[in-house]
Specification:
Blueprint lengths: L6 E5 L4 H5 L12 H18 L4 E4 L3 H10 L6 E2 L16 H7 L10 H7 L5 H15 L4 E5 L1 H12 L3 H4 L9 E5 L2 E5 L9
Parallel strand pairs: 1-4, 2-3, 2-4
Antiparallel strand pairs: 1-5, 5-6
Helix pairs in contact: 2-3, 6-7
């Protein structure tokens, strides 16, 4: 298993489409009030991390950019297109429930949101997604903070931990917390005032 530098991974705060259970992919949906609170909660965790001087990176998509500005407390970050969410092709903007209704083969408990994204017609697919994530990870030169997206995060975290696709799709996918990845392991930093991250 490849060893990567230490990474602090932050998923963007809750969006309106998260609440609606709508497939976002690379389309835009603004942060809710809870989403802004998620980013502020992350900011409360990031002070000691940022004091260590890691390089910071963020997805170019609006929800991640806004989260990064809040969660990183104004610290500079590099925008990298390779950190954009997985592209879900023709299913972007559709409700998860509608996709599952129209595709009964996907309406099973073991089918994860990641599986649905990767099955989308005209979507990015697993090979291309993992290729760009691997390209990003192999470009890192030292400890790094990443502000990005849930499904990309599941794959990125899974690559670091040596997991297969099925395992990746069932990783936690929380907002308002920080995933710490080091030496092939993961732990979660969470605010003391909330139980939203498990």
């Amino acid at each position: 298993m490849t060893e990567f530098p230490k990474i602090w991974f932050l998923r963007h705060g809750q969006t309106h489409w998260n609440v609606e259970k709508r497939i976002q992919g690379q389309l835009c949906s603004g942060l809710t009030e809870q989403g802004l609170a998620d980013a502020r909660a992350q900011a409360g965790l990031m002070g000691p991390v940022l004091a260590q001087g890691p390089l910071c990176y963020a997805s170019p998509l609006e929800r991640a950019q806004k989260t990064a500005k809040i969660a990183l407390g104004g610290a500079e970050f590099i925008t990298d297109i390779r950190l954009a969410e997985a592209h879900a092709g023709k299913w972007q903007g559709r409700l998860h429930a509608d996709v599952r209704r129209d595709h009964p083969e996907l309406d099973r408990p073991e089918v994860s949101a990641l599986d649905i994204f990767l099955a989308a017609p005209g979507g990015e697919g697993y090979e291309r997604l993992t290729a760009r994530i691997n390209g990003f990870l192999h470009s890192l030169t030292g400890p790094s903070v990443i502000v990005s997206h849930g499904l990309l995060g599941q794959v990125l975290r899974g690559i670091i931990r040596g997991l297969d696709l099925a395992q990746m799709g069932h990783l936690s996918n929380d907002q308002g917390c920080v995933y710490v990845l080091e030496n092939g392991t993961e732990r979660v930093l969470k605010p003391s005032f909330t139980e939203s991250c498990e």
